[in-house]
């Protein structure tokens, strides 16, 4: 009896997946454990292995969406017939009833236009008249003849088509939902990151550390002091969350993914740095599980490495806020009556104004600013 190959459940939130690509053609001999297909949830891709040896029979086409648990293929014995894959009988064509053709519509044209059309072999039914009542004039015929003489436009080069499925589709759905269901406001502040830069240079000799790691640690501390920014709206209730799970946006070639640093408030800066590095490597390698990219309560996104100063990040629902990080730029600053160079950086906080007002949002942002301007507090 044929063995079923089903769409796997790659995480608690997954309900359906897409068959991205078949690695073995329909009818090919496969061995147990051999990779036969690539499937995609709205977060990650996954390679399916054959559950048995035999003849692979496709039950789903490439790019087809299947619910979790649905059959996408069978592993059959040689010569085995699989009833589910047999084609349904085609109904015989019904007898056609002759329909009387409608009478041809009268074409309104001036005598001169008719004569000119006959000279040039032009079908008047192809011309739109500009005369009274839509009558075709001699001028209309000449315009049609001249247009026909013009060389055809050069063919357009073939466009590169990017399938709007999987991760790209998930991003579109979530961002559209976010903007349509929330009252989003963005506030910004500029911080003096001089000490932040100095501390990172000192700690880089001990462990790998990025500015994003330091912002994540600062945000985790600030969220415990300002719990409204670490909440979610369920029905008509605002739930303040005990856990601080911070998502860190990672850019991929095909889109964006947000791995989650769980319990960031309980991790040291060194532990956060190690976790963000592990998650980023897994994101780029496509090895993260669905559970590693879901469940965040707050998100940090850094576009500073792309030369961006200030931007308006979009909230990742069901969260209520997201913190954007800009680049660090050296600027002149007044210090004790003298102009000295200082490393400056912008932070952009987008929050859901239905839940958080401007003042508490600003207080949260000020706490993050104070922590990053006095970064040794991140080590406590």
Structure description:
The protein has 3 domains: 3-81, OB fold (Dihydrolipoamide Acetyltransferase, E2P) (Beta Barrel), CATH 2.40.50.100; 111-143, E3-binding domain (Dihydrolipoamide Transferase); 166-379, Chloramphenicol acetyltransferase-like domain (Chloramphenicol Acetyltransferase, 2-Layer Sandwich). The protein is extended. It has helices at residues 111-120, 138-149, 166-181, 194-203, 211-225, 269-285, 358-373, and strands at residues 3-6, 16-22, 29-30, 35-40, 45-49, 54-58, 65-67, 71-76, 184-192, 231-234, 237-240, 246-248, 250-252, 255-257, 260-261, 298-302, 321-335, 338-352. The chain has 380 residues and is α+β, with helices and mostly antiparallel strands. The longest helix is centred in the last third of the chain and has 17 residues, at 269-285. A 6-stranded mixed beta sheet has the order 9-18-17-16-12-15, with helices on one face. Strands 1-8-6-3 form a 4-stranded antiparallel beta sheet, with no helix packed on it. It is built from 7 helices and 18 strands.
